Amino acid sequence: KAGVTQTPRYLIKTRGQQVTLSCSPISGHRSVSWYQQTPGQGLQFLFEYFSETQRNKGNFPGRFSGRQFSNSRSEMNVSTLELGDSALYLCASSTGLAGGEQYFGPGTRLTVT
Amino acid sequence: DQQVKQNSPSLSVQEGRISILNCDYTNSMFDYFLWYKKYPAEGPTFLISISSIKDKNEDGRFTVFLNKSAKHLSLHIVPSQPGDSAVYFCAASVSNFGNEKLTFGTGTRLTIIP
Q1: A108 touches chain B (CB under 8 A)
Q2: Residues 6 or more apart from B112 whose CB is under 8 A from it?
Q3: What pLDDT, in 10s, does the model give residues A34-86?
Q4: Residue pair A38/A46 in contact by the 8 Å Cβ criterion
Q5: Contact at 8 Å (CB) between B112 and B13?
């Protein structure tokens, strides 16, 4: 069974630009969660999508948004990039039915200059 | 407010010995706990989990212990192997339907010395 895939793996953007990251979950998984990992803050929950609906949201500003498609693939968008948005963005998939193990992709390393 | 804490940023253990990684939590609503292992440039890999109805769960060389009264869990790796060198994160959740949010600790870097 293929794992969680994320594209692109690396991205360099300029402050003020916007960026879209993509995540394909494990086949059969309907929940996709997004996390931001930074050296100072560790892994922070951004939001979770289940059956094309945002079901949970973390404490991030509205510049961070996402969506999920009918095939469970998810995208995350960050608008008006700031230097502090430089981080590893991880998505994780799960069945979404009972809360439990999540399986992570390799992440997208975003650098904002 | 850090609800899940890993107070040891790093740990070095001799190959073949026991590695013990610790994690404390403050939110009494957490009822499901997980350990993940992370290598550089990769996403976290699920290792082992435990529900709050248990106090111990074993999977091969990995055992997780949960002390609910102390709000403390630990991961034991026996025997430690060089391939275990990685960053270990503990995570916690409230495992009701509709809640997939994991709250992570800041991680402990484990180094196994050959």
Answers
A1: no
A2: B12, B13, B14, B15, B19, B80, B81, B82, B83, B84, B85
A3: 999 998 778 999 999 999 999 989 999 999 999 999 999 999 999 999 999 99
A4: no
A5: yes
**pLDDT for the residue A99:** 61
Rounded Cα distance, A11 and A20, in Å: 10
Nearest CA distance, B44 vs chain A (angstrom): 6
| Cβ–Cβ under 8 Å, residues A44 and A58 | yes
**pLDDT for B73-109, tens place per residue?**
999 999 999 999 999 999 999 877 667 889 999 999 9
Optimal mutation site among B36, B57, B100, B102, interface A, most CBs of chain A within 10 A? B100
Distances (CA, A) of B35 to A15, A92, A100, B81: 35, 15, 11, 17
Query: How far apart, in whole angstroms, are the C-alpha atoms of residue A34 and residue A1?
Result: 21
At A30, list the tokens: 């309907």
In this structure, what token pair is assigned to residue A49? 């999508």
Instruction: Dig out the tokens for A63 from the structure.
Output: 């510049």
Q: Could you give the CA distance from residue B38 to residue B15 in angstroms, rounded to a whole number? A: 19
Q: Is the pLDDT of residue B70 over 70?
A: yes
User: Minimal Cα–Cα distance from B99 to chain A, Å?
Assistant: 6
